[in-house]
Specification:
It is built from two helices and eleven strands, in the order αβββββββββββα. By secondary structure, the protein is of the alpha+beta class. The protein has two domains: about 40 residues; about 170 residues, no CATH class. The strands form two sheets. Strands 3, 4, 6, 7, 8, 9 and 11 form a seven-stranded antiparallel sheet that branches.
């Protein structure tokens, strides 16, 4: 009889232990699952700035800038052609516009490098075309925006800096930053002779504002002499 009571007590104790363990496992699983879901739902900070290049004469719809196509029919990725010989052309120099759409969800600094290449196409005696590179004295006369832009560093590292921290809008929409939004008022671009064209390439570097310029650009202070 005593042995049966002892077995019964052992059985009850084992049952209570198993029940307690199951509660612990369930609670732990629920806790870890909740934490995991919290991690999954949290958005990771990212940096992204996209370029938008187009032509706008103020009359018709804007026209996207087209990549340069070589004589052999091969396109130059990221290189855009600008007409500098006819003010009647849709892609004429005065109509060129350049914006940067900031999509970062954290504060961002970005800088831009613009490569300008003047070219001249010459027809050879056999009818073939040769494209020659022509040196430019200084920079092409784009009408750059000045607010929050710093240009003087082109003589040091070839970059143009946006001086303010910026990120996307509160609703997730990109923040547009204009760099070339018009041409000089009351002025006309001096056209070149037939055969000339301008090829333009734009490079963007964007970093998070917190520590990004120091770590990625090697700049302990801004090029205009302040702290980041």
């Amino acid at each position: 009889m005593a042995e049966r009571k002892l077995r019964r007590k052992m059985f009850l104790s084992l049952a209570v232990l198993l029940f307690s363990l199951s509660l612990f496992v369930f609670s732990s699983f629920a806790w870890f699952t909740g934490k995991f879901e919290a991690w999954i739902n949290a958005e990771v900070g990212f940096v992204e700035v996209e370029m938008e290049a187009f032509f706008d004469d103020g009359v018709g719809d804007p026209i996207p800038a087209q990549e340069v196509e070589t004589i052999n029919g091969i396109k130059k990725p990221g290189v855009y052609e600008i007409n500098i010989i006819s003010n009647q052309s849709d892609d004429f120099f005065e109509h060129f516009r350049l914006y940067f759409n900031v999509k970062s969800n954290i504060d961002t600094y970005f800088r831009v490098k613009i490569y300008e290449q003047l070219t001249l196409k010459v027809e050879n005696y056999d009818g073939t075309i040769t494209e020659l590179s022509v040196l430019i004295d200084g920079y092409m006369p784009f009408y750059y925006e000045t607010e929050n832009w710093y240009y003087d560093n082109r003589n040091t590292d070839d970059y143009i800096y946006y001086t303010e921290k910026v990120q996307r809008g509160s609703g997730g929409e990109p923040t547009p930053i204009g760099m070339i939004t018009a041409y000089f008022p009351e002025e006309d671009f001096s056209v070149y002779a037939i055969g000339y064209s301008l090829q333009l390439a734009i490079s963007i570097e964007a970093v998070q504002a917190e520590g990004g310029p120091e770590e990625n650009w090697g700049l302990t202070e801004t090029p205009w002499g302040t702290s980041w």
